[in-house]
Amino acid sequence: MDHFALNDGELFAENVPLAAIAREVGTPVYVYSRATLSRHARVFREALAGLPSVHIAFAVKSNPNLAVLRLLASEGYGADVVSEGEMNRALAAGIPAADIVFSGVGKTRRELTAAVKAGIGQFNLESEEEGMELAEIAASLGQRAPCALRVNPDVDARTHAKISTGKADNKFGVAYDRAAAIYARLSALPGLDMKGLAVHIGSQISDLEPSRLAFLKMGELMEAIRSEGHSVTHMDLGGGLGVPYKASDSLPTPQDYGAMVASVAKDWGVTLMFEPGRVITGNSGVLVTEVVRVKEGVVNPFVVVDAAMNDLARPAMYDAWHDFAAVKPNGRTMTANIVGPICESSDTFAMGREIDEVAAGDLAIFRTAGAYGATMANTYNSRALVPEVMVDGSKWAVVAARIEPATILAAEAVPEWLA
Ligand code: LLP
């Protein structure tokens, strides 16, 4: 459920007409709905309410906008970060360091040091090598770094290959069969406080069975580690729950997910940790675009919009589907290819799709763009970095300004010896 709906024949975000935002801010522009974000945050939390001890760390990578983080902080969410930049955003948004989990396969020495100094609540170690380096850094600062060991359960999440992370040949975590021995060795290091295990098998997960199998394996591993005399007080079950991108998509709900987790893990005697991203932010945002022109094609017309793959990369990267809708639909439809202006064919949002009829100058939206949208934007073809707006009832504000190509140009220089 979201708050982007037709009101008197025109699309609104909550009580604000999208056309009003487009007029003032220009297009393309991402628009987020505060009510939708809060609702998703609460629904996810309530779905886990039956579990004894829960910590939810929002996956910042899905939408790192400062206002989004502040809102989620006020909903009691911690943060799952994967870089010093994300950590600093989470801290700037007022998320306590103790509620931050630091994930990622390539944390640098500089990042590990900064995170130890900041007092991060949990490092999810992706390798024994990383654990040894962190132990040395923490010890040299007179600290013990709280850690979980990320394990690769070798389970196929049955999602797009580019966003699957829990197969043995993915780069993430330590091999399942070696995990207990690595946990034991890391537990012996004075610089580390080994608290538990972590797992994350992929994103846009539409079938709970692979997660259930992975969690069962993690439970067995936890028992094996405990039976060797080590303590396991935390189990981080990652993120990954998918969202509907099409009206016809049928996905497990947060309630289904919570029930599945409870059936596997409610008696583990640990704090269960979660790292949801897309399920919170996905349907909370749309990308508003203007039709530049409609160009005749051989099979179908091309609807050329002013948003491109640099603004919303998912269709080009993962063949992802984002619903397209006219801001002021006229009731007719057309079959068209929707493309951006960038000079490569991957800058295509849809081929041969039946859509609301649009013409040059019309506004339209791509739905479900709140997760992995603005955050993956870039400035390819010397385009602006896309701005972001948040709506709250009848109020709205720019929460990330458009970064003009001139600003980026100003950071470049021609060396004297080329002049
Ligand atoms: N935790 C870890 C360790 C992760 O790697 C991820 C996502 C998450 C949590 C959050 O997953 P979510 O709940 O959002 O599915 N750019 C891709 C998605 C990449 C996901 C990467 N990791 C896309 O646009 O589909």
TrEMBL record:
Residues modified as N6-(pyridoxal phosphate)lysine: K61
Pathway(s) this gene product operates in, as recorded in its UniProt entry: Amino-acid biosynthesis; L-lysine biosynthesis via DAP pathway; L-lysine from DL-2,6-diaminopimelate: step 1/1
Domain Orn/DAP/Arg decarboxylase 2 N-terminal: residue ranges: 37-281
Role according to the record: Specifically catalyzes the decarboxylation of meso-diaminopimelate (meso-DAP) to L-lysine.
Biological processes per GO annotation: lysine biosynthetic process via diaminopimelate
Protein name, UniProt field: Diaminopimelate decarboxylase
Positions annotated as active site in the UniProt record: C343 (proton donor)
Residues that bind pyridoxal 5'-phosphate: G240, E275, P276, G277, R278, Y372
SUPFAM superfamilies xrefs: Alanine racemase C-terminal domain-like, PLP-binding barrel
Family: Belongs to the Orn/Lys/Arg decarboxylase class-II family. LysA subfamily.
Cofactor: pyridoxal 5'-phosphate
Alphabetical UniProt keywords: Amino-acid biosynthesis, Decarboxylase, Lyase, Lysine biosynthesis, Pyridoxal phosphate
Catalytic activity: meso-2,6-diaminopimelate + H(+) = L-lysine + CO2
Quaternary structure and partners: Homodimer.
Residue intervals of the Orn/DAP/Arg decarboxylase 2 C-terminal domain: 30-370
Entry GO MF terms: diaminopimelate decarboxylase activity; pyridoxal phosphate binding
Gene3D superfamilies attached to this UniProt entry: Alanine racemase, Lyase, Ornithine Decarboxylase, Chain A, domain 1
EC number: 4.1.1.20
CDD domains per the UniProt record, alphabetical: PLPDE_III_DapDC
Amino acids binding substrate: R278, R314, Y318, E344, Y372
Gene: lysA
Keyword Amino-acid biosynthesis appears in the UniProt entry: yes
